[in-house]
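Q: what does this look like with iron/sulfur cluster bound?
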Amino acid sequence: MGLSEHIVMRELDIPDIADFEVYRRHGGWEAYRYALTEKTPADIVQMVKDSGLRGRGGAGFPTGIKWGFLPKGVYPRYLLCNCDESEPGTFNNHQIIDRNPHQLIEGVALSAYAIEANTAYIYMRGEFAAAARALEQAIAQAYAAGFLGKNILGTGFDLDIYIHRGAGAYICGEETALMESLEGKIGQPRLKPPFPAVAGLYGKPTIINNVETLANVPRIVEKGVAWYRSHGTEKSPGTKCFSLSGHVNRPGNYELPFGVPLRELIESPEYGGGMKGGRPVKIIIPGGASAPWLTADHLDVPLDYESIAAAGSMLGSGAVIVLNDTVSAPHLAYKMDEFFKHESCGKCTPCREGTHWLVRTLHRMVEDGHATAADIDTLHSIYRQMAGNCFCLLGESAVMPIKSALQLFPSEFEALVKRSGKSNGHHIPLVAHH
Amino acid sequence: MKLLETHRAEIETIVARYASKRSAVLPLLYLAQDTYGYLTDEAIREVATILELPPTDVYEVVGFYTLFYNRPVGTWVLQVCDDVPCCYCGAEELIAALKQTLGISEDETTPDGMFTLQRVKCLAACDRAPVLQANLDYVYDVTPDRVQTLLNDLRARAAEARKRGVSGRFAEDYEFTRDGRLVQIERFAPYRPREFVIEPPAPVSSPPPSVVPEADAGLDRADTRKASPL
Ligand SMILES: Cc1cc2nc3c(=O)[nH]c(=O)nc-3n(C[C@H](O)[C@H](O)[C@H](O)COP(=O)(O)O)c2cc1C
Ligand code: SF4
Ligand code: FES
């Protein structure tokens, strides 16, 4: 079920597409020229709506519909490209900016035209330092070719694109925290509503989209809605750049139409190439750290938003982490929640305290080897108090690893307790005495 | 006013990108960090003055973001990803090798001031595990046997003053080739698909290797216990 032609990862078809001239020769920037000279912004919004393009940043929200939320006649508007990419297991934005940067920039420019924004920021995680430098160069080439700047192509449209580097904070990928960060503040999420489309950056109407989402836009405009919709499923049209990692033979990004079964991604010799050493699949996390876990029973689930949701998880950012039978479920929950604890912005109590207590309890059980039966109840109690009570989705996501581990592998927690009882008769208090 | 003296034009360009001066705080802190070596009080106050902000606001920002250092760090800050999935793909072995070779623990700096070692969360390069950043230069596929090559190269770059500031303003990415050479990744170079070494299936009966604590961990781990996370 491979692609005859890639929509986003076109470096596989055209290896030197990162070169500006090569990108141009393959039709690069023509969709933008066509849009600016022959289409109105509303036409482009309609096209993106009709294409069924859904946001690739995690929620899968239809992009054209989001763009339609902008209040009429309110300017200036901003376009933000979310390249914070910090969710464990997610690395496709990284490849897009490294390997097909001009398509992203054209996508940003086209989308800015569609939503009538004259300024766009690409917010990149601070660690993408070399990539940010390269992208600066690519943007400079677009200016030099007359695609950015003032009165572009004589149409009267002005557009500036700037790169803004974050400085190490996963939470800044959350759209409102990103805006706070871009305004020079600490990255703590804002209360919604108002939604960014109404009041975003500097309180102005703002659209924020993921790198992969925006990289799709030039192809939709160039090749048309019908062509685009001929990929993927009715409700999840197009392709997804799946980031496959863990114990597979061939970890990497694979662009596949939505709806490909997990098994094909993991086992096909063109993609995952099967499990390292032939070991069995134990845990599959299909959508980055925030997604509930699946197991080998789910290998035949198709990779699209609806099917993964029906299987009890979420497609999220399309980061598929596959782990084998050497991995202990409590340890995995510990590592995952350590991530969320590390990244909690500290604004709300259920997340700040909940992740803290989850990690402390799990650390003692898993790393120190002191576990009691009461700890299992404590873990249940902590995540239940967090669920539904956190200010943003980071805290809600932190519930998933521990909840999944306890539901899918209860015996491993019981074994921790049993072993601990044998090795150590007394209970180590949760609160350390210093 | 070291920062303003040395980077006035660049600062003006940065500030002009935003509708509010305050937005320039992260880029200016990066610049200040490279100019002063780390974010000294003087550096932080200078950024506050330039952006007309109360110094406390800038201190708060410095404290929130992990890539800002308000105390001295080594010439090279080595940040190893220990997140999922890297921790199951050789990250712990890499960290152990670095600790042993450098003779330091996490969050310490070697006595010669050359290397600071840190654990960090996912670097968005999980397919290239084990992975680290050296002053935000990516280095992919750093298996423990390649640590010495990497450290030698970094020392040589420091000696030739080819080291770049800790803020990544001149970052380049590197990778280890399959035959163990450390090479700089050429920007905009033609894409080449990766070659993989496929691990042959192990005999079915072999028990799972204990890469990570099994459910019965703890028993024999008491002496290798890690410090409590707090
Ligand atoms: C904690 C957290 C982290 C997030 N990180 C990212 C990220 O790194 N990149 C991203 O595109 N979206 C991220 N999101 C989702 C964004 O808030 C937002 O929904 C997305 O950028 C919208 O783009 P899309 O409609 O194109 O998907 C994150 C959300 C949360 C709650
Ligand atoms: S849920 Fe966590 S990350 Fe989100 S606002 Fe609360 S403390 Fe911050
Ligand atoms: S987990 Fe290490 S780079 Fe993603």
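Chain A is about 45% helix and 15% strand. Residues 349-367 of chain A form the longest helix (19 residues).
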